[in-house]
Amino acid sequence: MIGVARGVAVFAYAAPCDMRKNFDTLSAIVTETLERDVLTGDLYLFVSRNRKRAKVLYFDGTGICLYSKRLEKGLFAAPWKRAHKSTIEMTLSELSLFVEGSEAIGRMQLSPPLLTRVDLRSKFPDATP
């Protein structure tokens, strides 16, 4: 899978996407539609209308990368079927399952939420940051 830290977020675009779109066009969707900054290091998932292809866009610190996969059998899950807004937040575990062709994404939380510094400070008030 993609070699990234667990602390990054994954956002699935909740509409079918034309897989002819390139780095720049997908980055524009992230900026304008999802209202996020592609340079944060988060991952952005796009799925084709026929659900045979998917792309993941991310910034690795040196440039924007585009991971693409075409399924030879079966279909990817349709993120837009479970969406109530323009984006769906996922975990890296869910993204990994999604890329493998799993239908489990979006049905239940598959891993615990990431701890933040605020969570840790409330649990360990005497610890220094």
What does this structure look like?
The relative contact order is 0.19. This protein has helices at 23-32, 92-99, 117-123, and strands spanning 10-13, 43-47, 53-59, 64-70, 87-90. It has a 5-stranded mixed beta sheet with strand order 4-3-2-1-5. It is α+β, with helices and mostly antiparallel strands.
Brief account:
By secondary structure, this protein is of the alpha+beta class. It has helices at 23-32, 92-99, 117-123, and strands at 10-13, 43-47, 53-59, 64-70, 87-90. The chain has one domain.
Helical residues, percent = 10-25%
Radius of gyration: 16 Å
| Oligomeric assembly | single chain
- The helix/strand class is alpha+beta
General form: globular
Any low-confidence stretches, pLDDT <50, length ≥5?
Answer: none
Number of helices: 3
Strand order of the largest sheet: 4-3-2-1-5
Sheet-strand content, in percent, reads 15-25%
Order of helices and strands: EHEEEEHH
Provide mean pLDDT, rounded. 81
Distance between the termini: 32 Å
Please outline the major beta sheet.
5 strands, mixed
How many β strands by DSSP?
A: 5
Domain count: the total is 1
Q: What attributes does this structure have?
A:
129 residues; globular; 5-stranded mixed β-sheet; alpha+beta; 3 helices
